[in-house]
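Following up on my earlier thread - several people asked me to post the actual chain instead of describing it. Fair enough. Here it is, all 402 residues.
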Amino acid sequence: MYKIVCPVCKGLFMSATLKRFCSNACKTNGTKYEKKNIAKCIQCDSYFVQERNTARYCSTKCLYIARNGVDSPKYTKKCKSCDNEFTTNRKDRVFCCEECRRRYIYFTNKEVVREKRKKYYYANADKAKESSRQWRIKNREKFLKSQSASHDYIRFDGNREAVLNRDNYQCVKCGSKERLNVHHKDFSGQTDTPNHQLDNLETLCDTCHIDVHKIRGDRSVVTTICQYCGTSFEAWACKLREGRNKYCSEACKLAKMSQPKASFTVNCLVCGKEFQTTEHKQSLGKGKYCGRECYQKAQIGTHKNKPKTKQIPTTCLTCGKEFMTTQYYLDNGRDKYCSKKCSNIGMRMKPKRENIPHPSRVYVNCKICGKEFHVVKSEIEKGRGKYCSRECYNIARNKPSA
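Reply from S.P.:
Thanks for posting it. Predicted structure:
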């Protein structure tokens, strides 16, 4: 029988033949060790797969014993990620396992790790999807646990475990410890703005949880009185509990809403004059001033009443009419006309561009017909610009030299 060290799981096993792996699972994960040599450890006489051809020891433990004569010292340390104690023979080791090391790196450098993962995913999308699917199949329990934990965080802002721990993992009504749920006391769990405060959460079993929601959704018929006409009518108990079904019909509801609201007399904060206002306006912070003038006086010196830009008189270039504008507009060449109509007339009266002499153009006489035309100075410097048209140019080329 041979004593062999598995290169994948590093476990020791016995075999009648020199096998490389202890199981089929290690064989599938250790394809890179199939072509490597098998050697015998000098210290413990066990066989191992050489990662390099010069290896003589099956582990660092055997290497340490061969060099020092004793086993390596053990150190008890605290994991930097999960805070659990572990034993190791390395002074510089700070994590108990590879998973803790990866988790610590991820949470300390979240943005960097996420960017790397995004780049890898975009470059190898099909490969990443397949590897993710394989991981979910192999680690089914871990995947379901992480999925439920993320669901609890979304539903209760991470307070679910704290509520269960506070209530000793039992129903607060009947004391049952089976099929527990976390319940919102104000029934805001299914609304857009749920209240996840610890004071608003309690632990209930399935039976008590259903009974609580049945009471809230109680559709038993109850007789009540209309708040407008005073007649009695039947309504659901759950709606009355929520402050609804106050009126016997839609007509009574509209009549109640169209009634003038109760008003009372108050004094204006600026002039002291008495005027009427309602409780609703007072609750909104309104109903303090008797009119618009008093309101504007009260706003003097605040951000709501900033002084306007000073306007100055100017004259329209088309009709000569005087109108008001600002100095800023005049400095930027704007507000030359009093209206759009005058602006259109003024634009039409502007001289055409071709009648305006250009600073880089000069007037010369054609050498064939004597007609005056303008040409660019740079053309004259190059020896061009002698003829007014193509016809005169052709005549000059065909004319015999004297």
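Residues 303-307 have pLDDT under 50 and may be disordered. That should answer part of your original question.
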